[in-house]
Design a protein that fits this description.
The protein is mainly alpha-helical. It contains 13 helices and no strands. Helix 3 runs antiparallel to helix 10 and helix 7 packs antiparallel against helix 10.
Length: 284
């Protein structure tokens, strides 16, 4: 057998093995991604009788649906900005301390991701409620009680607490890959700390920032559990409206139509952010 023919046979055998290894994932992707998405698209553009219609998608123009969408966008943007404000300095400190991914400090930031999200949000409900831990501490210090529960501020607090690790880890991962010689060169050329931060560190950390923004903004925009618990059912986001259409109203058509609008915002945001992501901001 000639060397070229042997190479082609080995390549064909390797491709066949890779195809076999990918089969379970393809089955899982079809069963849990493609088919559900196809059903959502079908229900979004049909009536209960099965006729084609744009009425379900047009429901977003109603004030009771449009207002929760705008509010969800505002709260998710606010929580994303706050997560970045807290995460970037912390990630920079961890990077300067040369804390590795396997260290105990890094483990502390990953640990909350192993816990059930609802349990963590319920804990904040206990802390923030009218006679909760926070107000009892304020009362013991002869300070006025705070009415944070059932407000947009409580929802933002829950979002920031829940999604902050998803902002810290990709930024830290990107910062840890920056060569110390690059930063030292900036200092040697007379750049101050803030100039180095703005001109060198921040541009090189863009992939991690983009990954972090994506992993915070998307779940914050689609959440309904946090607003249900910390909003007390009084503050409706678009996720709450969609959840009620599917569960309480049993109207899968309208729920799917609103989901398509929400999906459009997510796709647009990810398309914009992907222009600045080169794949170096992965968490692990």
């Amino acid at each position: 057998i000639s060397p070229s023919l042997r190479t082609r046979r080995l390549s064909a055998l390797k491709n066949k093995e890779n195809s076999l290894l990918a089969t379970p994932y393809l089955i899982w992707m079809c069963g849990f991604i493609v088919i559900p998405l196809a059903l959502v698209i079908y229900y979004a553009f049909t009536t209960k009788a099965g006729a084609f219609s744009l009425e379900n998608v047009g429901q977003i123009l109603l004030w009771e649906n449009y207002k929760p969408l705008v509010l969800a966008l505002l709260l998710s943007l606010a929580s994303t900005v706050l997560c970045f404000v807290f995460a970037f300095p912390l990630a920079l400190i961890l990077r300067n301390k040369k804390i590795g991914k396997g260290s105990f400090v890094a483990f502390i930031f990953i640990l909350p991701m192993w816990m059930n999200s609802l349990l963590r949000i319920l804990a904040w409900q206990t802390l923030l409620e009218r006679k909760g831990v926070l107000n009892e501490i304020l009362f013991s210090l002869h300070l006025p009680r705070q009415n944070l529960i059932n407000t947009p501020y409580a929802i933002i607090l829950g979002m920031v607490y829940d999604f902050l690790p998803f902002m810290i880890l990709p930024i830290y991962n990107t910062l840890s890959k920056i060569d110390d010689n690059t930063i030292d060169a900036a200092y040697d050329l007379g750049a101050s700390f803030f100039t180095t931060l703005w001109k060198v560190i921040l541009p090189l950390s863009v992939p991690g920032i983009v990954s972090g923004v994506t992993m915070v903004f998307v779940p914050a925009l689609t959440t309904f559990a946090i607003s249900n618990i910390l909003g007390g059912g009084k503050i409706y986001l678009i996720g709450n409206v969609i959840e009620q259409e599917f569960t309480t109203n049993s109207n899968w058509n309208v729920g799917s139509g609103l989901s398509m609008i929400l999906m459009l915002f997510i796709i647009l945001s990810m398309a914009v952010l992907s222009r600045y992501d080169n794949g170096e901001g992965a968490m692990f």
